[in-house]
Amino acid sequence: MASGETTRVFAVKRLEAFIASVLGGLGLPESDAATCAARMTESDLRGVDTHGIFR
């Protein structure tokens, strides 16, 4: 981590809900947004940052 950066920790379900909300707001159907959000957070939890929420 670079100097001056901080780490933020979020509850998984809260983060999934936020991502799904953003994707839904962009026009993705609700069920697809929920699936995508779950997979993105799952990727981060597994350490696969290239396919997680920062992608």
Summarize this entry quickly:
The chain is mainly alpha-helical. Helices cover 55% and strands 0% of the residues.
Question: Strands, helices and their partners?
Answer:
Layout: H1 12-25, H2 30-45
3D architecture notes:
With 55 residues, the protein is mainly alpha-helical. It has one domain (13-51). The chain is built from two helices and no strands. It has helices spanning 12-25, 30-45. Helix 1 (12-25) crosses helix 2. The longest helix has 16 residues, at 30-45. The radius of gyration is 12 Å and the shape is elongated. The two termini are 18 Å apart. The model has no long low-confidence stretch (mean pLDDT 90).
Gyration radius (Cα, Å) is 12 Å
What's the structural domain tally? 1
Shape: elongated
Sequence of secondary-structure elements: HH
Distance between the termini: 18 Å
Oligomer: single chain
Number of strands: 0
Runs in which pLDDT lies below 50 for 5 or more consecutive residues are none
Structural class: mainly alpha
State which percent range the strand residues make up. Answer: under 5%
Helix content: 40-55%
Number of helices: 2
How confident overall, as mean pLDDT?
Answer: 90
The largest sheet is:
none
Question: What attributes characterize this protein structure?
Answer:
mainly alpha, elongated, 2 helices, 55 residues
